[in-house]
Write a structure and sequence with these properties.
GO terms for molecular function: beta-glucosidase activity. This protein has a single domain, classed as Glycosidases (TIM Barrel), CATH 3.20.20.80. The protein contains 16 helices and 14 strands. By secondary structure, the chain is an alpha/beta fold. It has an eight-stranded parallel beta barrel, surrounded by six helices. A two-stranded antiparallel ribbon has the order 1-14. Helices cover about 40% and strands about 15% of the residues. Helix 3 runs parallel beside helix 5. A hairpin with a 6-residue loop joins strand 12 and strand 13. The structure holds the ligand N=NNCCOCCOc1ccc(-c2cn(C[C@@H]3NC[C@@H](O)[C@H]3O)nn2)cc1.
Length: about 450
């Protein structure tokens, strides 16, 4: 029996997002988001599911906070629905929308739980999409104005701010692959969306500092790890490109003020060019207080001419998979964290999302989600290993507190440590909840 021990100042938490849990999409003046539109577009979401009700956390947040209090978390990472604050994206502020988040934050603080607030977790006001969305530079200014309202409203109450969740998903998954809202399939569009997101991030960090806002600010890229199948240079280069799509493309502008040239040239070969204007890179290159990292999976990859965007194919190594079909690859978690430290130094890191999809249902009031429990253990072992290797990990927040609307997969894929019955909205703590609760309390676990 051995023990995996975490440092005494380790922070533990859970994460959710507005469109995935809140519901109440027409309540108290909320405006439409691109996910309201996308989820109601036939064929975009499994079973035609949408976030109209979701987990109804808009009305049940006190119950959810009581569950978190029982869990013993330090942090609750949630996101604000921009369309609740600015129903049209800009212009008139919706006080009822602000009131909801004040009630949420006040209740968290009353229960000794620190809020970690994500300003953008994909629910762009539809009114802004109607004017080009993130492809339109005006959306950058609209976002900074929205962020400024939030900084001023929650000064001293929210001290942990994340500008953007998973800019890769917002740009490439949503505008090149087309699997998420708004669902375009244009590489150059996706690159310009990504660039505008990063400018909005930089301008928001500048605003945060100008206002002397109490607390810390960062962003939360999602990363994968592609391990070369062999030591052949073509396999190494192919995996470098695949990794850089998530890492260098979204890290270099922030940490170095440039885009990775080898990727710029690769995209140019594909006929896609960046539209960088004077001053853009200086704006993006703002020092941040922490880096959020979202990690789920990885794979072994090798060169395959003409395969995908990067002449790279995934190699099936027989890894076990979760119920959503993603490899269980804890070594990739260790590898990517060590790579980030090697490339970007000692930036404080919070794991802002790590979790797994297992669709176990309650039996006699219990949910025996052994797969999720094993995934958690394996990835926390990798996390502790990375800390022993000098990675500056400050905290770990698992995705997710609740089963919820998993985007294009709808309600068919469950990531929660708490089961949600979508008919009755009843919450049931899973075995993984009780294991995570014990791990948080002990700050260690046995294997
Ligand atoms: N890698 N190449 N893919 C090429 C082929 O893409 C097809 C689909 O791709 C993807 C890639 C990544 C994801 C994804 C989902 N989550 C989970 C959410 N994270 C934020 C939070 O809201 C969670 O719900 N994280 N990542 C989905 C689909």
């Amino acid at each position: 029996m051995s023990i995996i021990q975490f440092p005494k100042d380790m922070k533990w938490g859970v994460a959710t997002a507005s469109y995935q849990i809140e519901g109440a999409v027409k309540e108290h003046g909320r405006g439409e988001s691109i996910w309201d539109t996308f989820s109601k577009t036939p064929g975009k979401v499994v079973n035609g599911d949408n976030g109209d009700v979701a987990c109804d956390s808009y009305h049940r947040y006190q119950e959810d906070i009581a569950i978190m209090k029982d869990l013993g978390v330090d942090y609750y990472r949630f996101s604000v629905a921009w369309p609740r604050i600015f129903p049209n994206g800009t212009g008139e502020i919706n006080q009822e929308g602000l009131n909801y988040y004040h009630n949420l934050v006040d209740t968290l603080l009353e229960n000794g739980i620190e809020p970690m607030c994500t300003l953008y977790h994909w629910d762009l006001p539809q009114a802004l999409q109607d004017k080009g969305g993130w492809d339109n530079r005006e959306t950058i200014e609209a976002f900074v104005a929205y962020a400024e309202v939030m900084f001023k409203q929650f000064e001293g109450k929210i001290k942990n701010w994340i500008t953007f969740n998973e800019p890769w998903c917002v740009s490439f998954l949503s505008n090149f692959i087309g699997a998420h809202a708004p669902g375009f399939q244009n590489l150059e569009l996706a690159m310009n969306v990504a660039h505008h997101l990063m400018i909005a991030h930089g301008k928001t960090v500048i605003k945060f500092r100008e206002l002397n806002t109490t607390g810390q600010i960062g962003y939360a890229p999602n990363v994968e790890w592609n391990e070369p199948y062999s030591n052949k240079q073509e396999d190494i280069d192919a995996c470098k490109r695949a990794n850089a799509w998530f890492i260098e493309w979204f890290f270099e502008p922030v940490f170095k003020g440039t885009y990775p040239q080898f990727m710029v040239e690769w995209f140019e070969k594909k006929g896609a060019r960046l539209n960088i204007q004077d001053g853009d890179m200086e704006i993006i290159n703002q020092p941040i207080d922490f880096l959020g990292i979202n990690y789920y999976t990885g794979s072994v990859g090798r060169f395959a001419e003409g395969e995908g965007l990067f002449d790279q194919e995934k190699v099936d190594k027989g890894y076990q998979k979760t119920d959503i079909g993603w490899n269980i690859y804890p070594e990739g978690f260790y590898n990517v964290l060590c790579y980030i430290k090697e490339q970007y130094g000692d930036v404080p890191i919070y794991i802002t999302e790590n979790g797994s999809c297992y669709n176990d249902e309650p039996v006699n009031g219990e949910v025996k989600d052994e797969g999720r429990l094993n995934y958690l253990k394996q990835h926390l072992i990798s996390l502790e290993r990375s800390m022993q290797s000098g990675v500056n990990i400050k905290g770990y927040l698992t995705w997710s507190l609740l089963d919820n609307f998993e985007w294009a997969e709808g309600y068919t894929m469950r990531f929660g440590i708490v089961h949600v019955n979508y008919r009755t909205l009843e919450r049931t703590k899973k075995d993984s909840f009780y294991w995570y609760k014990q791990t948080i309390s002990n700050n260690f676990f046995e294997i």
